[in-house]
Amino acid sequence: MMELRQVSGGYEEFKVQEVNLTLRQGEFFALLGPNGSGKSTLLKLMTGVLPPESGEILLNGIPLDRYGSKEKAKLVSVLGQEEHVAFDFSVEEIVALGRYPYQRGLLNWHSAQDERVIREAMAATDVERYRQQAFRLLSGGEKQRVLLAKALAQEPQLLFLDEPTNHLDLKHTFSLLTLLKEWQRTKGLTVFAILHDLNVAALYADRLGLMKDGRLQVVDDVHVLKDEDRIEQTYRVQVNAQAHPRLDKPQFMLTPDEEQGPSSLSLLEGYHLTQDQQLLHISFDRPLKVMANSVWGSGISWASHFCNFHVPKQYHCANPQADIKRWLEERDIPVQQAVGMMTAVELKDYALLAREAASYQLLAVVTAGVGNAVDISQTHDLNTLSQIGTINTMVFIDGHLTDGAFVNAVMTVTEAKTKALHTLKVKDKATGTIATGTSTDSIVIAATQQGEPTPYAGSATVLGKALGQLVYQATLQAVQNYWRSMSTTNLGKRQDG
Ligand SMILES: Nc1ncnc2c1ncn2[C@@H]1O[C@H](COP(=O)(O)OP(=O)(O)OP(=O)(O)O)[C@@H](O)[C@H]1O
Predict the structure, then answer these.
(1) What is the bridge-based pairing of β-strands 279-292 and 442-447?
(2) What letter does residue 51 receive in the DSSP assignment?
(3) CA-based nearest residue to 360, from 403, 411, 414, 396
(4) Could you give the domains of the chain?
(5) Å from CA of 14 to ligand 1 middle
(6) What burial class does residue 401 get, using C-beta atoms within 10 Å of its C-beta: 0-12 exposed, 13-18 middle, 19+ buried?
(7) Where is the ABC transporter domain (predicted)?
(8) CA distance 42 to 214
């Protein structure tokens, strides 16, 4: 489509240097880079606004400077950063200007084809309702969409955009980029866009280039953005590249300098615990980072309220999330800062153990009912496993865990729980073998994220060892408390739920 060979050029004080780039037919190419790195200068060279001082630019194999302006405008259109409209044109008149390469003679006459394309461009950019209005009276975002309509009315093969989402709100940013993707797919449009938002670039571009100090540094697919060091070197800010929850695209988190982490918290002095018949509630004055498979707040989040709700054994789990949300609201616990679990175990039977190891403070809170104990290695009829009789384990760690360390902590806690069931010879009623857990166990790992990051929480580490021993002891105690309760209330024998 377009090829740049060793292209240099620009202004006396600033030049883009030795750029080599081949734009592929039908791709969405994003050009990124810090302010003043030369992105707009490169775009001006590519659109013929600035002549290159050396090197060559080919459009469909022909040097760019051999095209007449109308021929070039049938192939290429540009949506610039600032477009000044000198006359008091209506929106429709502005969009109609996009048809000028197709007009013959001096008369400003539109064919039926022109009219159709103008209407289509206005509809696609959602500006039809302003068609009679004066362009100058529109808002910045509305003007941007009208100018895009004008650029699309040119029916280009290649569309250049300089920060096209600048004035746009979230909805119109999304619809502009979706529209470009659609035209890319349905009309084979090639898009070259200067973008500032790395997240937008990662979501919409097929390939991207990073500009720095007048040089095009990297041309690669969007996964190059996962290279945090490169982004940091280019922009001189610290970034955190995270995986998009549904797409294989990186997304970026920034940490403001003055917010280098949550305020300090002494874990063992900083928690509050209340317990009544319905709720075991552990809260902190500030949030902890959490990995959990709880009913409410599952996944990775931050929370300062950790709630274990009692439900009857026959609890009908039609919509447990809605139930927990309601219970949290009834108790004025902020739902967006809460993690919520359920258990049929009496909450007074919880076990709480604390421990310090090296620089870590640890707290484990466990409730354990083993009526539904299951040996995971055996075959079961899944329908018989859905009762609430569960081991809920919450651990709180005064440490800074990487995501990998959170996964490691889940392993450690699970191994410790399983070992406790082994020690107590808790059996799977269906198979008679030693149980490895219950059918609906929940786990919450919460960390203060204070101090240096630790990448591991397995048994080869001080943290992992301490965590394992603590959860082992707490699980033993919780199961024993549960058994004691069961036998004193005469509700069942040792192995009943
Ligand atoms: N018309 C001009 N005459 C002289 N120098 C210019 C001109 N336009 C831009 N420059 C200079 O060229 C350098 C690169 O500018 P350019 O606009 O290409 O950067 P950019 O990467 O697009 O920046 P931004 O992200 O801020 O839009 C800057 O130092 C700028 O001052």
Answers:
(1) antiparallel
(2) -
(3) 396
(4) 2-254 (3.40.50.300), 269-488 (3.60.70.12)
(5) 8
(6) buried
(7) 2-238
(8) 8
CA of 107 to the centre of ligand 1 (A): 38
Q: Name which of 362, 335, 338, 369 is nearest 442 in CA terms.
A: 369
Distance 136 CA to ligand 1 centre (A): 26
Tell me if 383 CB under 6 Å of ligand 1.
no
Q: Which amino acid appears at position 212 of this protein?
A: K
pLDDT at 494 over 50: no
- Would the CB of 35 count as within 6 Å of ligand 1? yes
Cα 245 → chain centroid: 5
Q: At 87, is the pLDDT very low, low, confident or very high (cuts 50, 70, 90)?
A: confident
Q: Is the CB of 343 under 6 A from ligand 1?
A: no
Q: How far is 447 from 457, CA to CA, in rounded Å?
A: 12
For the chain, the C-alpha Rg in angstroms (whole number) is: 31
List, in sequence order, every residue forming a beta bridge with 192; answer none if it has no partner.
29, 160
Whether 190 is in the pocket of ligand 1, judged by its Cβ within 6 Å, is no
Distance CA(476)–CA(462), nearest Å, equals 21
From the CB of 489, is ligand 1 less than 6 Å away? no
Both tokens of residue 317?
């789990």
User: What pLDDT score does 400 carry?
Assistant: 93
Which residue has the CA at smallest separation from atom 3 of ligand 1? 11
For residues 376 and 156, give the distance between their C-alpha atoms in angstroms, rounded to a whole number.
61
276 Cβ partners below 8 Å, 6+ apart? 347
137 phi/psi in degrees, rounded to 5: -90, -5
Pocket test for ligand 1, best of 37, 166, 216, 235 (most atoms within 8 A of CB): 37
Whole-angstrom Cα distance, residue 406 to residue 344?
27
Closest of 48, 49, 77, 44 to residue 62, by C-alpha: 48
Model confidence over 342-367: pLDDT tens digits? Answer: 999 999 999 999 999 988 999 999 99
Residue 11 near ligand 1, beta carbon < 6 Å? yes
Mean pLDDT, the chain, rounded, equals 91
Q: 467 near 414, Cβ under 8 Å?
A: no
The residue count for the chain: 497
The DSSP H or E segment spanning 271 is strand 271-275
Ligand 1 binding pocket includes 14 (Cβ within 6 Å)? yes
- Given the CA of residue 33, which atom of ligand 1 is nearest to it? 21
**Can you tell me the ipTM of this complex?**
0.98
d(CA 441, CA 443): 7
- The string of DSSP codes covering 154-220 is T--SEEEEESTTTT--HHHHHHHHHHHHHHHHHH--EEEEE---HHHHHHH-SEEEEEETTEEEEEE
Residue nearest to atom 7 of ligand 1 (CA): 11
